[in-house]
Write a sequence for this structure.
């Protein structure tokens, strides 16, 4: 096995087989992982959810994670938002010629460890090699399938006036982490990604509070973008209390210097949840029992006025309309 990826690794011959055996099968092998053209799988017993995503991030390694962990978490969390237990995933790699095999193995190792946390199985995949300079390292595409819990019934269209708006932890950390990792601004601050697979806290939350109306993954565009999407889909207004929005001091410091709003920065391990206000305390209690959601907090409520809008109360007691997301959201994470 060579130290770097060559065009031969994508040609479908001996080198491709060697790459699959020494890197991918080594980390992804399970009873359903196949060398055939398609994996044959037991069907979910009830309704199922299916999602697909592509991951392009620069740099591919960042404090607290890498593109492999990101790919598993992103797909697991998208399924979780529908109340679906993640069962199976496929992953396709587009790898740039010259990419270090040792780095590819680190990525595969992260994927193995993250998938094992929630019991999702990687069952099929594909590998392509792009010429040097054509794809910037490695791109990963995933598809995930999950089995929806019997009590789960969530959608961005189900928010109701009187619902509490909850985030599962401090916001804007992943976007800030990626920005600092690029070292474009020369800012010295310790910010790690919030990237985490969240199925276990979601499962516990749905079982304890089946009245949850909305669960959304606040990834690209952050919490602010997600709230506008939900307000539009449900035809409701959303009122936020800025003093209750959790932001880590390190993130607040960096975004303050650069004039960025944490509400619009990407998260990769944070969910937005809506439930009846009388159930919010119970939901928060359940979420705070898990390491990755221990910072869960109520940040606002759903109203019947200002439909399609997000209004935020400021620290001085005034109210302002949160700007609608538009143009280029910085920093780009994919």
């Amino acid at each position: 096995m060579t130290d770097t990826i060559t065009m031969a690794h994508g040609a479908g011959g001996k080198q491709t087989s060697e790459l699959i055996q020494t890197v991918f099968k080594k980390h992804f092998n399970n009873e359903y992982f196949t060398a055939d053209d398609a994996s044959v799988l037991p069907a979910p017993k009830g309704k199922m959810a299916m999602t697909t995503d592509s991951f392009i991030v620069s740099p591919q390694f960042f404090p607290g994670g890498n593109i492999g962990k990101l790919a598993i978490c992103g797909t697991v969390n998208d399924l979780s938002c529908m109340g679906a237990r993640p069962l199976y995933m496929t992953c396709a790699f587009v790898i740039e010629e010259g990419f270090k095999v040792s780095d590819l193995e680190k990525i595969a190792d992260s994927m193995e460890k993250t998938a094992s946390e929630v019991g999702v199985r990687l069952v099929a995949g594909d590998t392509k090699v792009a010429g040097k300079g054509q794809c910037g390292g490695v791109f990963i595409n995933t598809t995930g399938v999950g089995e929806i819990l019997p009590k789960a019934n969530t959608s961005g269209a189900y928010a109701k006036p009187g619902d509490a708006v909850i985030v599962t932890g401090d916001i804007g950390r992943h976007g800030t982490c990626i920005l600092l990792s690029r070292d474009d601004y020369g800012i010295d601050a310790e910010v790690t990604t919030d990237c985490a697979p969240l199925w276990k806290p979601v499962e516990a939350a749905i079982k304890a509070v089946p009245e949850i109306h909305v669960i959304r993954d606040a990834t690209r565009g952050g919490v602010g973008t997600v709230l506008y999407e939900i307000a539009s889909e449900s035809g409701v207004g959303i009122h936020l209390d800025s003093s209750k929005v959790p932001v880590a001091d390190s993130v607040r410091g960096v975004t303050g210097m650069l004039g960025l709003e944490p509400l619009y920065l990407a998260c990769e391990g944070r969910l937005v949840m809506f439930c009846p206000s009388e159930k919010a305390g119970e939901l928060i209690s359940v979420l705070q029992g898990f390491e990755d959601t221990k910072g869960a907090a109520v940040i606002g409520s759903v109203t019947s006025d200002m439909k399609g809008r997000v209004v935020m109360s400021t620290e001085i007691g005034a109210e302002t309309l949160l700007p609608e997301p538009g143009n280029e959201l910085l920093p780009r994470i994919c």
Remarks:
- The helical segments are 14-28, 67-80, 101-118, 173-181, 199-208, 222-234, 249-258, 280-287.
- The chain has two domains: 7-148, 163-321.
- Residues 101-118 form the longest helix (18 residues).
